[in-house]
């Protein structure tokens, strides 16, 4: 009997492991007809594989219950409760939605409707209950991410290894906004940001060959982010670098490792510049802001400072001088300063969008700016009824709320304050969620990440897998401020949340 119970448990774990392989390797690499309608192809691949594997997992668990086999009791954690509350908010918002038929699957091309939200929550609960802690999935995810980022970097260096851009000129939209096996550059930014934590954690905590591969993967991430034609990816790369620096301020040897990783960011810029100077390739960039950031001489200053600090610390390490970081004073001071600066920046941004600062009216004049879109989103939400403000209009109902239900967006378009593009989201995940699932959905979603980070705060400094999850979720949250949910990053985030609440919340001392 015990053997049968063990076999059933192993079967469920194997199914979940197989799904993680499909998610972390199959989904990023899958292409049906190169980059043509790749959004639909990726969604259908995600939905169909999740439904099929999910059905097998459910059947295996039900069979286990029918046979009366004993299952390991798992106490419900705070993240579980918030995840369930998030699902309830999605279901309730769908039930009261004035466009119920549209929000079942979601807006065409993105498909983040009720079905997808249910699948995301299902991924979390399946992984958190049945992921066995296997380390091989991290190797699979790391190798896949390395392949994707390498192809993306080569695409930006005008090297079309897959032939997906054949016949396209450098200046046209598809050539500058699509890349690698992912497609849309916003999708790409989300993907590389949520998977970068795996390479960064290996470089920070790994040994020998593992660390060397981690450094290589980190270099590819930085180089691909800085050339991706996505400000979001650049912000994620800088944000993850700063977070890694903060985590290293408790011990000198950790700070040395963090600086070795951080030096890769300006080095990646220098490498691409070298290619351009030698006329080996052409750089495909469309955004003026990205071009100015890429070619700024400030990178030389950053690199010189990093090298100088590194050499000083290395000298103190060799002389075996006392480690002043171990007292924790530097860590507390820098973290406090970082928190204060972050809160001030968020407050300034909120006041700017709300129109309470001098000159903030110019925000509305930026016809294609995200701040204008954020402002009209807030105006639309403020005019919804109390019921919709609490529960929302349904998953992926943003287009309906902005263009068919509300009048502010069309009014702004007619006045030239907002461009005439079709927006199916606010380019800010939290504002989009506010409209679609109301304040209840925002609270639940925030609670999910807050409780997950609280559980990871100790294990992230001791277990490289937990650190990979911590950095991956942080990269996802940075992107969430400027992008949206999609099937090339959000499922990975929910899988990482499941891993965090499964075995990684335990402090496991292992060799990576």
TrEMBL record:
Coiled coil: none annotated. GO terms for cellular component: membrane. It is found in: Membrane. One of its GO terms (molecular function) is ligase activity. Keywords: Ligase, Membrane, Transmembrane, Transmembrane helix. It comes from the Bacteria. It is a multi-pass membrane protein. The chain crosses the membrane at residues 12-31, 43-61, 81-97, 109-127, 139-157, 187-205, 210-226, 232-249, 261-287, 293-313, 334-357, 430-453, 465-484, 490-509. The keyword Lyase does not apply. This is O-antigen ligase family protein. It comes from Waltera acetigignens.
């Amino acid at each position: 009997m015990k053997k049968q119970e063990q076999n059933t448990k192993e079967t469920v774990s194997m199914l979940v492991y197989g799904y993680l392989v499909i998610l972390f390797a199959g989904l990023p690499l899958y292409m049906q007809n190169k980059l043509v309608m790749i959004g639909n192809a990726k969604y259908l691949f995600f939905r169909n594989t999740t439904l099929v594997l999910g059905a097998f997992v459910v059947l295996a668990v039900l069979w286990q219950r029918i046979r009366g086999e004993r299952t390991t009791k798992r106490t419900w954690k705070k993240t579980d409760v918030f995840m369930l509350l998030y699902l309830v908010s999605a279901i309730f918002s769908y039930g009261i939605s004035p466009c119920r038929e549209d929000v079942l699957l979601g807006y065409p091309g993105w498909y983040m409707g009720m079905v997808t939200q249910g699948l995301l929550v299902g991924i979390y609960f399946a992984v958190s209950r049945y992921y066995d802690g296997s380390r091989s999935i991290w190797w699979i995810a790391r190798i896949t991410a390395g392949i994707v980022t390498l192809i993306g970097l080569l695409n930006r260096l005008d090297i079309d290894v897959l032939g997906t851009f054949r016949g396209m000129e450098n200046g046209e939209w598809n050539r500058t906004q699509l890349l690698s096996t992912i497609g849309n550059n916003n999708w790409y930014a989300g993907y590389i940001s949520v998977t970068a934590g795996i390479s960064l954690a290996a470089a920070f905590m790994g040994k020998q060959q593992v660390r060397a591969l981690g450094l290589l993967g980190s270099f590819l991430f930085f180089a691909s982010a800085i050339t991706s034609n996505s400000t979001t990816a650049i912000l994620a790369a800088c944000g993850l670098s700063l977070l890694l620096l903060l985590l290293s301020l408790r011990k000198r040897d950790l700070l040395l490792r963090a600086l070795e990783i951080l030096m890769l960011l300006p080095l990646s810029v220098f490498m691409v510049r070298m290619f351009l100077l030698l006329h080996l390739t052409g750089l495909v960039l469309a955004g003026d802001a990205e071009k100015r950031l890429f070619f700024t001489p400030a990178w030389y200053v950053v690199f010189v400072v990093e090298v100088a600090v590194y050499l000083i610390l290395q000298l103190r390490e060799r002389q075996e001088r006392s480690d002043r970081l171990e007292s924790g004073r530097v860590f507390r001071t820098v973290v406090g300063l970082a928190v204060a600066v972050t809160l001030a920046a968020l407050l300034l941004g909120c006041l700017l969008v709300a129109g309470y600062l001098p000159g903030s009216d110019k925000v509305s004049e930026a016809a294609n700016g995200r701040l204008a879109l954020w402002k009209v989103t807030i105006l639309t939400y403020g005019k919804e009824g109390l019921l919709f403000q609490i529960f929302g209009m349904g998953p992926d109902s943003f287009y309906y709320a902005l263009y068919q239900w509300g009048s502010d967006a069309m009014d702004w378009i007619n006045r030239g304050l907002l461009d005439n593009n079709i927006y199916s989201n606010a380019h800010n995940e939290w504002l989009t969620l506010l409209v679609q699932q109301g304040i209840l959905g925002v609270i639940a979603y925030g609670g999910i990440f807050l409780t997950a980070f609280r559980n990871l705060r100790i294990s992230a400094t001791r277990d490289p897998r937990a650190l990979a999850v911590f950095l991956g979720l942080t990269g996802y949250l940075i992107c969430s401020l400027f992008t949206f949910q999609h099937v090339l990053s959000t499922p990975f985030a929910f899988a990482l949340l499941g891993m965090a609440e499964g075995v990684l919340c335990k402090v496991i001392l292992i060799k990576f």
